[in-house]
């Protein structure tokens, strides 16, 4: 895999994570192909296509979050780019509670008329923990 391909994949995945953290559903959807397949929490939540992804994300993205992604592995398989990375997600979805999650993401990325897009995403939950807290008041 070339440096340019890795850079394009990192840019796409970073845009996905920033859009999640901003609760920007249209921004997240722009990272996907029409026929996207999403698997969250080790397959407990399965989503097919942009319409289902839109409905799921509108319900799931409430409250602030921060996704820290690292330890990337890149592989080219035919015309697809496979990117695996580790992540720690800090989410404030419950009043007065911070949830910390250790995750592994597996992204299948394909060329699209408007650039690289995520065709398949697998999200594996490795651990989670909760603590009292929440976003700062302004």
Layout of secondary structure:
Layout: H1 3-21, H2 25-29, E1 32-40, E2 45-48, H3 49-60, E3 65-77, E4 80-94, E5 97-112, E6 115-132
Parallel strand pairs: 1-6
Antiparallel strand pairs: 1-2, 3-4, 4-5, 5-6
- Helix tally equals 3
Oligomer: single chain
Q: Whole-number average pLDDT?
A: 94
Helix content: 25-40%
Number of strands: 6
Sketch the major β-sheet: 6 strands, mixed
> Helix and strand string, N-terminal first?
HHEEHEEEE
* CATH architecture assignment: Roll
Number of structural domains: 1
As residue ranges, the low-confidence spans are none
CATH class division: Alpha Beta
Question: Can you describe this structure?
Answer:
The structure is a single chain. The protein has 138 residues and is of the alpha+beta class. It has one domain (3-132): Nuclear Transport Factor 2, Chain: A. 26% of the residues lie in helices and 54% in strands. The protein is built from 3 helices and 6 strands, in the order ααββαββββ. It has helices spanning 3-21, 25-29, 49-60, and strands spanning 32-40, 45-48, 65-77, 80-94, 97-112, 115-132. β1 and β2 (45-48) form a beta hairpin. The longest helix has 19 residues, at 3-21. The mean pLDDT is 94.
